[in-house]
Write a structure and sequence with these properties.
24% helix; alpha+beta; 4 strands; 94 residues; 2 helices
């Protein structure tokens, strides 16, 4: 499976941030939102997709829960692209 994540916008700080972006699965693009929070207990991300996106993923033969887990893992590991002008340092706590 070809899976890529792109961040469109991030609001917040290193403590908590709302992420708006998209991901592609085998050339099909879908939107998502996520909340990222960290510090106590480490970094954590909760991503959400719409019911419509869930249905489309199922039609493509993918389990939406597996896709959400993959999306969250990519966000945590920094396996993503950012819009021009947004730097990882603005939301990643080193």
């Amino acid at each position: 499976m070809n899976f890529k994540v792109h961040i469109n916008n991030i609001h917040g700080s290193q403590m908590a941030a709302k992420i708006i972006g998209s991901f592609t699965v085998d050339g099909n693009e879908f939107r998502f939102t996520a909340i990222a929070f960290g510090r106590i207990g480490g970094q954590n991300i909760g991503a959400k997709i719409s019911k419509n996106t869930e249905k489309k993923l199922e039609q493509l033969g993918h389990d939406p829960e597996d896709i959400i887990l993959l999306l969250q893992r990519n966000l945590l590991q920094g396996d993503l692209t950012l819009p021009e002008g947004l730097r990882r340092e603005s939301f990643v706590d080193d």
